[in-house]
From TrEMBL:
Lineage of the species this protein comes from: Bacteria, Pseudomonadati, Kiritimatiellota, Kiritimatiellia, Kiritimatiellales
Signal peptide: 1-20
InterPro entries, sorted: DUF2961
Official protein name in the record: DUF2961 domain-containing protein
Gene3D superfamilies (alphabetical): 2.60.120.1390
Keyword Signal on entry: yes
Keywords: Signal
Amino acid sequence: MCKRLMIAATAFLLSVSAFSSVGAGEPVSVESLLNEMVDRYAVARYPEADFRLKQHSSYNRASKTPDDPEGWFNNKDNNTNDKHDSFIRIEENNGQKEWVLMDHQGPGAIVRTWMPWRNPKNGGAGINMKIYLDGSDEPALEGNMLGMFDGTGIIPYPFAHPSLRSSVNFFPIPYAKSCKVTTDKMPFFYIFTFREYDESTPIKTFTMDDFEAARGLTETTGKALLNPVASGAGEPLRFSAKLVSQEEKSIELPAGGASVRELTVKLGSYENLDVTRQVILKMEFDGKETVWCPIGDFFGSGIGLNPVQGWYRTVAENGTMSCRWVMPYQKGGKVSLLNLSGAPVDAELEVKTGEWAWDDRSMYFHAGWRGQYPVPTRPYSDWNYVALKGRGVYVGDTLTIMNPVARWWGEGDEKIWVDGEGFPSLFGTGTEDYYAYSWGGQSTDFYEHPFHAQPMAYKYNKLNRKTAENERNSMGYSVETRSRSLDTMPFGSSLKLDMEVWSWTDCDMGYGVGAYWYGFVDTTSNRKPEPEEVLNVPPLPDMDGVAPEAATTPFKGAVEIAPKLVVSKPDTIVLKPQDLKKMKLKGAWNSGNHLLFRNARIGDGIEIRIPAASPVAEKLTLHATKSKDFGILRISVNGKPAGVDVDLYAAKPVPSGAIELGAFDPVDSAYVLRIELVGVNSKSKGTFFGLDCVTLVEAK
């Protein structure tokens, strides 16, 4: 975190009421959007200047329909060579090629951008980016693709920041007619999230003069974001009690029109990690229950106590959890804690309320929860966060997963449909990208920002930071949280948010999500109380044993060769999986078996598709079997020769040992191995061959 802009909260108590968002007839501008960014009252009212959130990203263009799972779940969401097309088009400007990443016609505002490092060790992109507004031939902003938005360039922290191995920006860039973003080289991954306003909305287009004029407001807004306080809050209502199992205790809110301004929960002990999943926050406004959510998933802590600070929520190191979403009501309400943990729990609840003038844009606050264990990672699937009907605004979520293996779990893209559209207007590039970081398998450290955070990953949180930079292990619980400000999502009739379940490993994971939104009295959701599922806490794997990724083994990062990976072969070749353990053979194979290829003839070739473990180049090593009737193989990877011919003859069955193929860039998130039988040893009695696995290690 950039400490030069941080000051002690005791020295900075800024009332958010000093900020006001755009009013009727006033143009949307840099200043109005900066004010809106920290206006919690505005979020509780349906936007007066209505808009829909849209997104242009490097999602895979083969993803067209769920009816085609191979394309829908294609993981190649980036560009690494001239065959890739995860961008809009290529233009030529004054003899210079420009790759178009975003092209929006109509009034709007960029409100969030995300771009990752090109590799996990070095953030430098060496790519120049230009942002053209309102059809101008001259860019309004130009600079290094990463440096412009990582907090080291013109946009200051905390609006622009590096997150974990990423460049992320929330500084608003409004435009009246159009916005086009280009780069002078092929882009890697990218996401541009923007508001699309009604055509009649007045917009004051971003200029550098306006940027300079708003420097004072920019600094004030940044300080407010880093030192969040609730404004307009009255005297607290509170209770402190020992809740026995199944007991519920409530605070009645003041009668008449008012709003919750701050909500605080603290438990006596967090020694049992499950307690944050099994103590439930319930809220009722004007006779309707709108909140049913485990406290960990509501405040952003996940399973266990994981301190974190954001603009809307804070989890303190002493266990105090607080929330600053404004929650209005007309007549009355109730806030409750319900203990489902099976043991007594000491709990404190405090609520502060303030005035509220209810109008036709005022909305009720909602929070729902969904949990599931086990969640199979094969076949790939879309896992629903929430589906909403009616009118409202989506404002955030917290995802807690349990990963039973060390290998990375979060390649899945978000897909968000708004108002019944046929294709999601927000289609992402990865779960970690949605939560504003990158290189998930290695970025297993704590980080926080006013609008997103990773409070927990593997063994690490704010109280136990990661020290081994190159450690790769995403086993156990990971907690990802995002609260929206300028990137809230209004909807007029419906909203559905799905996240792909896309792990590199075929395994059973655990998923739990808290989702937050505002809605009108007739807005409904598919989230209902799940008292049984909160007791189904996904069990942790052995976190103290030797993690698979860290184990000393020749099969680290192995992909077992199985019939389903064989994408091409002559009809005469027969595939036969063999259990080598039952055959009592000596030597080490990855999982004790291999795939035997029978009846091959010289000149025959087969193709095997190996899923990539990373979007960058990897070193591939083949493990096979030698035997008395095996032949000589020639191997290529993605059409390129790989090593020398391999003679698999041996007097008796033995492991081949490591057959190094070399380093290759993945193509469409995979490596296609072509294996051709080119001859036989003079001592061999046949033309069979047996293949064990391929290991993938990031190329140095």
